[in-house]
Amino acid sequence: xxxxxxxxxxxxxxxxxxxxxxxxxxxxxxxxxxxxxxxxxxxxxxxxxxxxxxxxxxxxxxxxxxxxxxxxxxxxxxxxxxxxxxxxxxxxxxxxxxxxxxx
Length: 103
Fold this sequence. Notes:
Layout: E1 15-25, E2 33-44, E3 58-60, E4 66-67, E5 74-78, E6 94-96
Antiparallel strand pairs: 1-2, 2-5, 3-6, 4-5
């Protein structure tokens, strides 16, 4: 029987992955779906440590993947295979830029 050694770093043997897909409507009055976005979070089952996304800018875009400000949630735009390649493009988004303060 194995047990968790609290003095050794976790090797992260198993993961819990949560994926949600959001449907973006044209407006409150018009329920037409104009975009989809998958939101993905990963954490280690053994120790509970959340994982962060590397190499992804913080913010939200319907043109390319971005992550939350804490880097724990990947926001990935997607479209049905039958949709035009520009599906969801042109929607407003935002980016978070980090600038280090004075030393």
